[in-house]
């Protein structure tokens, strides 16, 4: 007898969740995008994998938001679906115009230190990537024996949402092992 009611309860719960999920979905009739300068509306729609006519619910909106953020082109993104109109508000990251490295003259050291940095000219400027690149530079210098090096960053904001980055590097003295002594047997 309990199993009979248990199956009915499962069926009711299934219908409840199915209806709840479909009750909050809307068929997309128009996409409005605000705040973009460099990146076109069609490109943002492609990033979000959305088209007019799509049936969107809250899970789909979260996925659109996540996909647009993953491009690393936008500092801030918000999405809102109201009356079958999807509004996407974006704030674009600045573009890196130039990256300069001061303080290292030897190409052999430059090749090792600057080889695997994330930020490149003509890419989006993401502050987290800048801090990670600074740590990579410091780590590479330590591997080369420059334990007392110092890395400072100058950031210059330019017109048209662009920036210049300058890494000012003081190598300091290279640490060297002068003598190795063994004590005991």
Short description:
This protein is of the alpha/beta class and 185 residues long.
Summarize the SSE layout with pairings.
Layout: H1 2-23, E1 26-27, E2 30-34, H2 41-48, E3 55-56, H3 58-69, E4 74-82, E5 85-92, E6 95-102, H4 107-113, H5 127-143, E7 150-158, E8 162-170
Parallel strand pairs: 2-5, 6-8
Antiparallel strand pairs: 1-3, 4-5, 7-8
SS content category: alpha/beta
The largest beta-sheet arranges its strands as: 2-5-4
Q: What general outline do the C-alpha atoms trace?
A: elongated
Name the assembly state.
Answer: single chain
- The percent range for helix content is 25-40%
User: Major β-sheet, in short?
Assistant: 3 strands, mixed
Average pLDDT confidence is 85
Descriptive report:
By secondary structure, the chain is an alpha/beta fold. It is 36% helix and 28% strand. It has five helices and eight strands. The chain has a three-stranded mixed β-sheet with strand order 2-5-4, covered by helices on one side. A three-stranded mixed β-sheet has the order 6-8-7, covered by helices on one side. A two-stranded antiparallel ribbon has the order 1-3. The longest helix has 22 residues. The protein is elongated and about 80 Å long. The termini are far apart.
């Amino acid at each position: 007898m309990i199993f009979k009611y248990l199956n009915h309860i499962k069926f009711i719960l299934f219908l409840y969740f199915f209806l709840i999920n479909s009750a909050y979905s809307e068929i997309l009739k128009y996409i409005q995008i605000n705040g973009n300068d460099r990146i076109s509306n069609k490109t943002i729609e492609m990033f979000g994998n959305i088209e007019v006519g799509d049936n969107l619910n809250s899970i789909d909106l979260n996925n659109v938001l996540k996909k647009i953020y993953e491009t690393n082109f936008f500092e801030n993104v918000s999405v809102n679906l109201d009356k079958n109109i999807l509004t996407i508000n974006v704030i674009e990251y600045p573009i890196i115009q130039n990256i300069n490295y001061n303080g290292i003259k030897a190409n052999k050291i430059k090749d090792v230190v600057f080889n695997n940095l994330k930020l490149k000219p003509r890419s989006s400027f993401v502050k987290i990537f800048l801090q990670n690149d600074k740590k990579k530079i410091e780590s590479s210098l330590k591997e080369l024996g420059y334990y007392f090096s110092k890395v400072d960053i100058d950031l210059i904001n330019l017109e048209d949402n662009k920036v210049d980055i300058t890494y000012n590097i003081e190598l300091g003295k290279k640490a060297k092992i002068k003598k190795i002594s063994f004590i005991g047997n």
